[in-house]
Design a protein that fits this description.
This protein has three helices and two strands; from the N terminus they run ββααα.
Length: 126
């Protein structure tokens, strides 16, 4: 039978979560799962890392289009520049897809590790 986690929170109160059977800590406080928690926490920053790059690319494309429209940049040169931006945009999309796959693999590894450590995973039916 599960019992209350023994950990003391940063606020000084006892954790309210339930500890897994045979363990005195919940998964959020179990020292054996510290590495899993660290990897999960690091995902947060990566999820937003491409936003500024996309914004910058969009601004540069707009600037190039404006320079072509005003005649400041020759159309042929502008076309080649825009092809380069298109290549960058496709690369950013590829990076995003690779990052998603890596994150899903990490999540799957985490779930498998939790299951291997005796935590039963239940699928709740509606």
């Amino acid at each position: 039978m599960a019992r209350q986690c023994s950990a003391i929170t940063a606020g000084g109160s006892r954790c309210r979560r339930l500890a897994a059977d045979g363990n005195e800590y919940c998964s959020a406080h179990d020292p054996a799962k510290a590495e899993v928690r660290r990897r999960a926490a690091s995902k947060g920053g990566r999820a937003r890392s491409g936003t500024s790059e996309i914004r910058q690319l969009k601004d540069e494309i707009r600037e190039t289009l404006e320079r072509i429209a005003t005649g400041e940049l020759e159309r042929g040169v502008g076309a080649v520049v825009l092809q380069g931006y298109n290549t960058l945009a496709r690369y950013l999309e590829l990076e995003r897809k690779v990052r998603e796959v890596e994150e899903l693999e990490e999540r799957l590894e985490t779930l498998e590790a939790l299951q291997d450590n005796g935590l039963e995973l239940h699928r709740w039916e509606r």
